[in-house]
Protein: Iron-sulfur cluster assembly scaffold protein
Amino acid sequence: MYTEKVMDHFSNPRNVGEIENASGVGTVGNAKCGDIMRIYLDIDDNGIINDVKFKTFGCGAAVATSSMATELVKGKGIKEALQVTNKAVMDALDGLPPVKVHCSLLAEEAIHAALWDYATKN
Amino acid sequence: MYTEKVMDHFSNPRNVGEIENASGVGTVGNAKCGDIMRIYLDIDDNGIINDVKFKTFGCGAAVATSSMATELVKGKGIKEALQVTNKAVMDALDGLPPVKVHCSLLAEEAIHAALWDYATKN
Ligand code: FES
Structure:
């Protein structure tokens, strides 16, 4: 049912945690399943995402997509990070079952919310 | 949204893992969200559940209910374990939001499936 990459990022999620005094924090909820996700960004003066961490109450698919999404935005500029879509994350994971696509939206939305938080602060 | 006990069992889930040569194994799926849960029971000659472990791809609510359910059945006899309902587990967790009740069913169903597996083998 799940690809090897999904199981890898689910079993060993990258970048789980919090960042104190983060440049931007995004919290989003999934109305369909009641899950929540929070992403912390550390953005330097050149607009580069130096560090990123996440926390979620979501399922394995939410954990795996967030883990992959944080890997994909790390080291990127803000514009590039905005182009890391839900679809790009799913492709990087070699796909997700259709019933789990809505879980993968949490990561994209949380990153956008965190970038928005950063933008409004700067 | 989530009680302290839910957050505790989600952050520090008890009895996560597998049991080799388990007396009974139960695997169930949740049609609503596509999540899966597996429970392993180690039952001694007196019919007492000596050890229990679980694995899930489910959300935080599934993790918390399974963790609590394994604590409630550990050390119990088979008949007592069958009385550990979904409702008893939710009560022990001080409740779950309505949208998450279907997640808590996974633990009860997986325990029943593992007990059934044990019964058919013995
Ligand atoms: S959403 Fe699938 S187990 Fe909770």
Observations:
- Chain A touches chain B through 17 residues (CB under 8 Å).
